[in-house]
Amino acid sequence: MDTQHTRDRERLDAFRQDFRAANVHSGYVWSRHVAAVVLYCVTAIGGALAQVEVWSAIYALVVPCAYVFANLAEYTLHRFLMHRVRWPFEFLYRRHSGEHHRFFTRHRMDVDSLRDLPAVIFPARVSLFFVGGVAAPAAWVVGWRITPDIGWLFLATAVAYYLSYELLHLGAHLPEQNRWGRARVVRWVRAHHAVHHDPRRMRHEAFNITVPLWDAVLGTVASRDDAADSARHGVES
Ligand SMILES: [Zn+2]
Ligand SMILES: [Zn+2]
Questions:
Q1: Please, which contacts does 213-221 make with residues 24 or more away whose CB atoms are closer than 8 Å?
Q2: Which pLDDT tens digit goes with each residue over 179-189?
Q3: What is the rounded CA–CA span in Å between residue 23 and residue 102?
Q4: CA 209 to ligand 1 center in whole angstroms
Q5: How far is the CA of 215 from the centre of ligand 1 (A)?
Q6: Which of 178, 176, 152 lies closest to 232 in space, CA to CA?
Q7: How far is residue 186 from each of residues 141, 157, 164, 208, measured CA to CA in Å?
Q8: Domain layout of the chain by residue ranges
Q9: Average pLDDT over the chain, rounded to whole?
Q10: Residue 169 Cα to ligand 1 middle (Å)
């Protein structure tokens, strides 16, 4: 058992070294990477909100509707494109199942250092796909079928959701010595996300990374006991 455990550790360490050699160049600065994602999303949110011409109290309903849509997009993209090879989205499978899930396992959820963030945060081109290829077309349809103002508000909410996803997922892979890594909301996210990082279960459970709303609706939520177990024993140094 111990020998198997040691072998698993060595295999994971070797994969991490290979990933770094291929993806983390010597000039990489993690704070710039995080700032770029935040700036890019905040600019898109501000740009969308600036397009709203007339504000109305009824628009308060748009935010939860867009949130539920974004939560469904998170679920479906994760379940059906990141854990299955489907043309022309092989890059999502490669990046997520081939790299992210091999870099982090249920009992080794943390980065070794902040230079490992490229294993967590999507590269800019993938973020562009989510915002430009998923959120923007959905918002355009909403704007076309209802009103342009509602479409812009829908877009701003969807991008804000994407930013929350990136930051919460980042926190779930930070050590608890990190202030964001030990925030209460992050510990809650890490508990169900760690179950998803079990290789035997990653194709079947816990596809929502943020709020497991569609996991609950579609019967794939991580069991309460498993999530509690991850919260207790999830991190191994
Ligand atoms: Zn993860
Ligand atoms: Zn996954």
A1: 213/68, 213/71, 214/71, 214/72, 214/74, 214/75, 214/76, 215/75, 218/75, 220/79, 221/192
A2: 999 999 999 99
A3: 14
A4: 8
A5: 16
A6: 176
A7: 33, 21, 11, 14
A8: 2-233
A9: 91
A10: 6
